[in-house]
Amino acid sequence: AQSVTQPDIHITVSEGASLELRCNYSYGATPYLFWYVQSPGQGLQLLLKYFSGDTLVQGIKGFEAEFKRSQSSFNLRKPSVHWSDAAEYFCAVVRGATNKLIFGTGTLLAVQP
Amino acid sequence: GAVVSQHPSWVICKSGTSVKIECRSLDFQATTMFWYRQFPKQSLMLMATSNEGSKATYEQGVEKDKFLINHASLTLSTLTVTSAHPEDSSFYICSASYPGRKETQYFGPGTRLLVL
């Protein structure tokens, strides 16, 4: 069965520091992969997605993610974190032809001044 | 583009009453909408898939008679929590996808339900 793992429940970084959030997936075929961000009490905003092609994808707000098939990973990165990036980040994969999203458990990002 | 709204943003109701939550795609037509439930500090749990003009498809363990879903038009889906109880208190989020691009979902801002 398809699954998504986000190993880090909580991460704290200093403002201006680089960020990498980890995501591993379990899926037989080439997956459709997503990163969403959720601010407190809000819905989810799509940061970026990977379907095929270039394995390094650019998203909004300066985020990027790299698909590595050999590692079954789709890690999210940002070179310099801003205080406004503090939020919860969810990695997700589409489950087959149903187009149902399977979410990871989320990583809560805190940004120190 | 791809804006999804929900109404109300929060609601408080008494135990035993029913509550209706609306999900609208504002700038596109959505043949498919999804309803999720999120408990505090947890991930999203898919409750059901709502298809315009047909019955919703519920995930295992979700009570169909408890959570009524209606997708009467291409821009509106509603979730009615019937005979609500305190354990139904949660954050409910809907999403919608473009026809022909169903793999990408756009989420509403969520509705917080508190049942007293």
Q: How does the overall form of chain A come out from the CA principal axes?
A: globular
What percentage of amino acids of chain A are in beta strands?
over 45%
Order of helices and strands of chain B: EEEEEEEEEEE
Percentage beta strand of chain B:
over 45%
* Mean pLDDT over all positions of chain A: 92
**Quantity of strands of chain B, as a count:** 11
Query: What gyration radius of chain A follows from the Cα positions, in whole Å?
Result: 13 Å
Question: What letter string, H or E per element, gives the SSE order of chain A?
Answer: EEEEEEEEEEEE
List the topology elements.
The complex is a heterodimer of chains A (113) and B (116).
Chain A: E1 3-5, E2 10-14, E3 19-21, E4 24-26, E5 33-38, E6 44-50, E7 56-58, E8 64-68, E9 73-78, E10 87-95, E11 100-103, E12 107-112
Parallel strand pairs in A: 2-12
Antiparallel strand pairs in A: 1-4, 3-9, 5-6, 5-10, 7-8, 8-9, 10-11, 10-12
Chain B: E1 4-7, E2 10-13, E3 19-25, E4 32-38, E5 44-51, E6 57-58, E7 67-73, E8 76-81, E9 90-98, E10 101-107, E11 111-115
Structure description:
The complex is a heterodimer of chains A (113) and B (116). By secondary structure, chain A is mostly beta strands. Chain A is built from no helices and twelve strands. In chain A, a hairpin with a 4-residue loop joins strand 8 and strand 9. Chain A is globular. With 116 residues, chain B is mostly beta strands. Chain B has no helices and eleven strands. In chain B, strands 2, 4, 5, 6, 9, 10 and 11 form a seven-stranded mixed sheet that branches. Chain B has a four-stranded antiparallel sheet with strand order 1-3-8-7, with no helix packed on it. Chain B is globular and about 40 Å long. The model of chain B has no long low-confidence stretch (mean pLDDT 92). Classes of the chains: A mainly beta (113), B mainly beta (116). Chains A and B meet through strand 6 and strand 11 of A and strand 5, strand 9 and strand 10 of B.
